[in-house]
Specification:
The structure is a single chain. The protein is α+β, with helices and mostly antiparallel strands and about 250 residues long. It has helices spanning about 35-40, 50, 75-80, 115-125, 135-150, 150-155, 205-220, 230-240; strands at about 10-15, 25-30, 35, 65-70, 80-90, 90-100, 110-115, 160-165, 170-180, 190-200, 225-230. It has two domains: about 10-125; about 135-240. The strands form three sheets. A four-stranded antiparallel sheet has the order 4-5-6-7. A four-stranded antiparallel sheet has the order 8-9-10-11. Strands 1-2-3 form a three-stranded antiparallel sheet. A hairpin with a 2-residue loop joins β5 (about 80-90) and β6. The N and C termini lie far apart (about 60 Å).
């Protein structure tokens, strides 16, 4: 074990000239060194949505836990991913036990960070929304509202899947719903996934998110959304038209 303390910087990267398939990624820098560039080049860092929610997975406690920092551009099952185990050790936070399911080993050492500095950096990154574009902010706020008020969609026998803002579609968000609910998808009962596209303007993001939430609570979103998941048989059983694929 070494007593050397390292410094962590969490850098959010948004592509400037985004192509279809590009995404926002979180790049952890250790002493200014991009560790993903060193140890994993088969895909991007994870979206900050998953790594930087309040109280999220980068918070270290006495009980070690594993965090995925990057995934292959195809899928993890094909070309791997990069995992690290986090734990609190006295006045330190330790990143160790690096793992890539597609490789025998990962060429990264154990890193120790001062716990106070580490937590301050995580909290800074969580609070920093300066990198978001309006649609991304609207998507985050709308998803937050729908999670906090699940009953708004439950009245339509729907459950939220996710709200996404794609970097190559900067003026639009996509809302994905399960009908009748996510839990049904694990059984034999029919289910469908719906997608609803919402146009976003330069107006106040909070006001737009509130307006979208009110509209979803007032009218059945399935009436204007398109079926995008499930099966043709399930659509027939639930009384919906299955989309014709080109």
């Amino acid at each position: 074990m070494t007593d050397t303390k390292h410094r962590l910087t969490l850098q959010v990267v948004v592509p400037e000239a985004a192509l279809r398939g590009d995404g926002v990624e979180l790049r952890p820098l250790v002493d200014g060194r991009d560790i993903l560039a060193v140890a994993f080049t088969d895909g991007p860092g994870e979206d900050p949505k998953y790594l930087l929610p309040p109280g999220g997975p980068l918070i270290a406690g006495a009980e070690p836990h594993e965090v995925r920092l990057a995934e292959a551009s195809c899928v993890e099952a094909c070309c791997g991913a990069l995992y690290v185990t986090l734990r609190r050790d006295g006045d330190d936070v330790v990143w160790s036990d690096w793992r890539n399911p597609d490789r025998d080993g990962v060429d990264l050492p154990e890193f120790r960070f001062d716990a106070g500095e580490y937590r301050a950096e995580v909290e800074r990154a969580v609070a920093d929304r300066g990198w978001e574009w309006p649609a991304r902010t609207v998507a985050r706020l709308l998803e937050q509202s729908l999670v906090e008020h699940a009953e708004w969609l439950a009245q339509w026998e729907c459950e939220l899947d996710m709200v996404e803002a794609l970097v190559w579609e900067p003026d639009r968000i996509g809302l994905f719903l399960f009908h009748p609910s996510r839990s049904v998808t694990r059984g034999r009962d029919p289910w469908l996934q719906f997608r609803l596209e919402l146009d976003v303007s330069e107006d106040d993001p909070a006001a737009q998110a509130a307006r979208f939430a009110a509209e979803l609570a007032a009218d059945d979103p399935r009436m204007i959304a398109e079926v995008c998941g499930g099966s043709a048989q399930f659509a027939r059983e639930l009384g919906y038209r299955w989309p014709q694929r080109p």
